[in-house]
């Protein structure tokens, strides 16, 4: 039988690395605790933000072992289980089921671009042989797209397919999926993976998001979800603009996901350097980005000021109260005569 419906903000967390580029288990565990303490509804390890393609299969499995142990049932885990073929993906599903993951997220076949019938067949084989619930992962920038008809067929034919994480940023497609699938599968989860339109997606009926920004400012994304859940759309919209400013700075000024890794350092964690080789030019750009993000996060109320060129403390920086930010937004809305 399927688990409870996936809903809320699931953080596609990075993996902290040590000076040799290996998994820093202690710091990753500390980071997981901080995310949960700051309101995320679930974790999504082995996703794009977690650089899953840059880790070995054994490292991906070890990541789930560490996180499942640290979470210890406090929040659901949506484990990325995409491997190079269906056989290895099913093996990953079996292992993550043993480790206690709630569900797995599986991207459509990548590298080879295949048609919709082949995409359907691929997921059908996995769903028919998986002991754990499956969430489709649509990210057409990197993998074969999963169109609305295919999602609907899989929802109709596979009880194990319980949701979709859509990172296309296509709001009309999300609405088409919801209108096609929800009447017959009300428990089916629709999660958006594109941070700039989190609020519009929630307004259209999405159940939550898997948003890279939640790994940096979990207080903000969790508050957006809370406001959307209670229909406070004016406040949610204003916080969305704040989130957009942060997201653009992190994703547009470095190779993904290094901007997010730099921002997490400024929240007080020793994340290490990602698996993509940097070189002197990219390293210098990251140092500049670190200074810019330090200023931006301070302006948004999420970290204390860090002097340019200084090293942030390894201890967690005390979080400002997100309610203070919301109250500021509310006061501004009132000033404009928009508050209800």
Textual characterization of the structure:
The protein is of the alpha/beta class and 340 residues long. The protein has one domain (8-335): Aldolase class I (TIM Barrel, Alpha-Beta Barrel). The chain has twelve helices and eight strands. The longest helix is centred in the last third of the chain and has 21 residues, at 279-299. The chain is globular. The relative contact order is 0.12.
**CATH-scheme architecture:** Alpha-Beta Barrel
Roughly what fraction of the amino acids lie in strands? 5-15%
Low-confidence stretches: 304-320, 332-340
Largest sheet: 8 strands, parallel
What is the helix tally? 12
List the helices and strands and how they pair.
Layout: E1 8-11, H1 25-37, E2 42-43, H2 57-71, E3 78-80, H3 86-99, E4 103-107, H4 116-129, E5 133-138, H5 148-157, E6 161-166, H6 171-181, E7 189-192, H7 198-204, E8 208-210, H8 218-229, H9 233-252, H10 258-266, H11 279-299, H12 322-335
Parallel strand pairs: 1-2, 1-8, 3-4, 4-5, 5-6, 6-7, 7-8
Helix pairs in contact: 1-2, 2-3, 3-4, 4-5, 5-6, 7-8, 7-9, 8-9, 9-10, 9-12, 10-11
Please summarize what this structure is.
The chain is α/β, with parallel strands linked by helices. It is 47% helix and 10% strand. The chain has a single domain (8-335), classed as Aldolase class I (TIM Barrel, Alpha-Beta Barrel).
């Amino acid at each position: 039988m399927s688990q409870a419906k996936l809903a809320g903000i699931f953080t596609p967390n990075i993996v902290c690395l040590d000076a040799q580029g290996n998994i820093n288990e202690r710091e990753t565990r500390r980071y997981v605790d901080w995310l949960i303490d700051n309101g995320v509804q679930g974790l999504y390890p082995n996703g794009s933000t977690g650089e899953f393609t840059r880790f070995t299969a054994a490292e991906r499995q070890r990541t789930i072992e560490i996180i499942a142990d640290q979470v210890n049932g406090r929040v659901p885990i949506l484990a990325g289980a995409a491997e190079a073929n269906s056989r290895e993906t099913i093996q990953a599903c079996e292992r993550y089921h043993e480790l206690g993951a709630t569900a797995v997220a599986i991207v459509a076949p990548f590298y080879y671009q295949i048609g919709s019938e082949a995409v359907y067949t691929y997921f059908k084989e996995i769903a028919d042989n998986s002991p754990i619930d499956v969430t489709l992962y649509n990210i057409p920038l990197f993998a074969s797209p999963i169109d609305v008809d295919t999602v609907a067929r899989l929802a109709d034919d596979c009880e194990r397919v319980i949701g979709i994480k859509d990172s296309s940023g296509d709001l009309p497609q999300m609405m088409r999926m919801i209108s096609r699938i929800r009447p017959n599968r009300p428990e089916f989860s629709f999660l958006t993976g594109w941070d700039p339109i989190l609020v519009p997606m929630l307004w259209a009926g999405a159940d939550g998001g898997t948003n890279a920004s939640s790994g940096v400012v979990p207080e903000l994304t969790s508050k957006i979800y809370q406001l959307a859940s209670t229909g406070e759309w004016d406040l949610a919209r204003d916080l969305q603009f704040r989130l957009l400013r942060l997201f653009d700075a992190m994703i547009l000024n470095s190779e993904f996901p290094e901007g997010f890794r730099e921002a997490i350092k400024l929240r007080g964690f020793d994340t290490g350097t990602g698996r993509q080789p940097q070189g002197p030019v990219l390293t210098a750009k990251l140092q500049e980005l670190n200074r810019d993000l330090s200023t931006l996060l301070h302006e948004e109320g999420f970290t204390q000021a860090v002097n340019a060129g200084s090293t942030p403390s390894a201890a967690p920086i005390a979080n400002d109260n997100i309610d203070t930010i919301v109250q500021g937004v509310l006061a501004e809305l009132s000033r404009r005569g928009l508050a209800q």
